[in-house]
Design goal:
Chain lengths: 48, 325
């Protein structure tokens, strides 16, 4: 697993914002680097 | 509009994909789920550079499984790799197996290159004109759907604006900024010059910024963790979110380069909530260029690079629906 953004306390900025903390925490359990995944939902009137 | 878009063949379906995704895929795998004569989810991932076939297929299938009503699927490989052969054949085979095991058997696999399209595994070389000239592409374009539109163009913003000074971040300032942001999002007017500068200034303080991000969503439980990861209490007001992106662009006009990163990050985060990770990446890169290493943008980009999908985008009931017709 990539640890690119998994930092130790010493490496963290002195004043991380709440949102930054949230995203950084979620990265601890995020999967491997696979690239962006786009997810769109068809509107109901698309028949095929 | 309630008009139906009838897709009568492969060229129609292949023409619809860029309209569904907002951009024409390149070097990508696309899975479309289907149920009872209608399409469900459209998923796009990068083509597997180094990923092993089975794990790659399992990951893509797990994303497709978010469509709980799917009974079938289509796979499209967009690539210029190995144009005379069968590119990523092992990955395609693994994906067909995994989707079948997940009760979404694959009806067709197509290959789309920069020169032709074909049923995967055949020697067909069908011209791309069949896609661009298809009835579906004509109908979608006529109805106003456009692909590969980049809303943020730095050249449109000018360079004349003076820098703003970020507020200290007191509780009163935070409340005032959130209230002003909410009024703007719930209204119809664009902000006047000073209002835009005041809001853009508030976005420069990252603690106020976080509250303004949260204020953009009206269906939340108050938890920053849930809001940032797209776990909402109900379907978001997507019109309000579209307006937030437009207003973020307006605020960028009020400040010079070097102070646009917070608004660009907001736009990137909102695109990610919509399921448009590619569009999000575009804005987040702009943010990280505007302020090198802009931390929130870098972190969200890393989350996106790990294949994360916002909770709200996983559910057809809560997800954003791109306006097509």
């Amino acid at each position: 697993m990539s640890t690119e953004n998994t930092r130790t306390d010493d490496e963290r900025p002195a004043d991380p914002s709440i949102a930054e903390d949230v995203i950084e925490l979620s990265l601890l359990t995020a999967g491997e680097t696979t690239g962006p995944v786009d997810t769109e939902w068809a509107q109901e009137h698309h028949n095929f | 509009m309630n008009e139906k878009l009838n897709l009568t063949g492969p060229a129609d379906l292949l023409a619809t994909v860029p309209h569904l995704l907002g951009s024409k895929p390149t070097e990508s795998f696309v899975v479309l789920t289907a149920r009872a004569g209608a399409l469900g989810a459209t998923l796009r991932v990068d083509a597997p550079e180094h990923a092993e076939p089975v794990p790659y297929a399992q990951t893509l299938t797990s994303h497709a499984a978010n469509d709980e009503e799917a009974t079938a699927s289509y796979v499209i490989v967009y690539t210029d790799e190995d144009p005379e052969g069968y590119p990523y054949a092992a990955h395609v085979a693994a994906l067909v197996n995994e989707l079948a095991a997940a009760r979404m058997p694959v009806r067709n696999v197509w290959l789309v290159t920069s020169t032709h399209w074909a049923e995967f595994g055949t020697d067909e070389h069908n011209p791309l004109d069949e896609i661009t000239d298809s009835q579906a592409n004509a109908a979608l374009t006529y109805m106003g759907s456009a692909t590969d539109v980049d809303v943020y163009n730095p050249a449109l913003l000018g360079t004349w604006a003076l820098r703003v000074e970020a507020p200290e971040g007191t509780e009163a300032q935070t409340e005032a900024a959130c209230a002003a942001w909410a009024v703007l999002l719930d209204g119809t007017a664009t902000p006047d010059g000073q209002s835009a500068r005041d809001l853009a200034a508030a976005f420069q303080n990252k603690f106020i910024r976080d509250f303004m991000f949260r204020e953009t969503i009206t269906t939340h439980n108050g938890s920053f963790a849930d809001v940032m990861l797209g776990k909402f209490t109900g379907r978001p007001d997507w019109d309000r979110i579209d307006r937030a992106e437009a207003m973020a662009f307006e605020l960028m006009k009020a400040v010079p380069t070097g102070q646009r990163a917070p608004m660009l990050t907001l736009m990137g985060w909102l695109e990610w909530l919509k399921g448009n990770a590619t569009g999000a990446t575009r804005y987040l890169k702009h943010a990280a260029n505007d302020v090198p290493g802009f931390r929130l943008a870098v972190l969200i980009q890393e989350l996106i690079n790990r294949g994360s999908i916002a909770e709200v985008a996983r559910n057809v009931e809560t997800a954003y629906k791109r306006r097509m017709i």
